[in-house]
Specification:
Elements: E1 3-8, E2 16-21, E3 23-31, E4 37-43, E5 50-51, E6 54-55, H1 63-75, E7 77-81, E8 87-91, E9 99-111, E10 123-126, H2 128-134, H3 138-146, E11 162-163
Parallel strand pairs: 3-9, 8-11
Antiparallel strand pairs: 1-2, 3-4, 3-6, 4-5, 4-10, 7-9, 8-9
Helix pairs in contact: 2-3
C-alpha cells in the first residue's frame, strides 16, 4: 500500500502537490571525528551496484517508519529518523514503471555488526562527494553533492520536503576513492 506525501511543486508557482510514495529510502548519516559528515551506501542484491537502503512500505506503514525498518534490515543501522521526507525522486530502474521514492534522513545512533542480509550485501561509510560518484541515480547524485553546501543534520527537523531538480546534474571533478580499495 502506498502513502501520499506533499512536496513543493518546482514546475509551477511553488504550490504543494501530493505524490504517491511507492518506496521509502533512508539517507543514513553520521559525523566522524573532526566533524566530517559521512553517508552509508550498501550494495544492491540484484545488481551489486551501490545504493541506499530502500524498500516498499508494508500495509499501513508510514514512509518514515519504512525507511527506519529498511536501514536496520538491510544495513544493520538504527537511529533518529526524520519524519518529514528530505526529498523524493523517481526511480526509473523498475521494470514495471517509474517509482516515487521518499527519502528520509536517519542520523546514526547504533550499528550492528551484521544486518539480516549481511551475506548478500556490502556496506561503506563515505563522504557525500564519493557517494555521488558511486550511485547510478542522477537525482541521488545531486542530493549527495548538495551535502557539501548544506549539512542536512544541522536542520534535520526543520527542512521542508523538496523534489530533487533535474535528471542530469553536471559532473563534479574527480574524488579519490582509495579508501574503498
Amino acid at each position: 500500500m502506498s502513502e501520499h506525501i506533499s512536496v513543493p511543486d518546482e514546475t509551477s508557482s511553488g504550490g504543494i502537490i501530493v505524490r504517491r510514495v511507492d518506496q521509502s529510502g533512508a539517507i543514513c548519516c553520521r559525523v566522524e571525528r573532526g566533524g566530517a559528515l559521512t553517508v552509508l551506501l550498501i550494495t544492491n542484491r540484484q545488481t551489486g551496484g551501490w545504493a541506499i537502503p530502500k524498500t516498499s512500505p508494508e500495509r499501513r506503514e508510514k514512509a518514515w517508519r519504512c525507511a527506519q525498518r529498511v536501514a536496520l534490515e538491510a544495513a544493520g543501522v538504527s537511529g533518529r529518523v526524520r519524519k518529514k521526507p528530505l526529498c523524493s525522486y523517481t526511480d526509473l530502474s523498475d521494470p514495471d514503471g517509474p517509482l516515487t521514492v521518499s527519502l528520509h534522513l536517519l542520523r546514526l545512533e547504533s550499528e550492528s555488526g551484521h544486518p539480516a542480509d549481511y551475506a548478500q550485501r556490502q556496506k561503506i561509510w563515505i563522504s557525500p562527494a564519493e557517494a555521488a560518484l558511486l550511485v547510478d541515480e542522477p537525482e541521488l547524485q545531486a542530493l549527495f553533492r548538495s551535502f557539501d553546501t548544506c549539512n542536512p543534520l544541522m536542520s534535520q527537523d526543520r527542512q521542508k520536503p523538496r523534489r530533487l531538480p533535474g535528471r542530469h546534474p553536471a559532473h563534479d571533478g574527480p574524488v579519490s576513492l582509495a579508501r574503498l580499495g
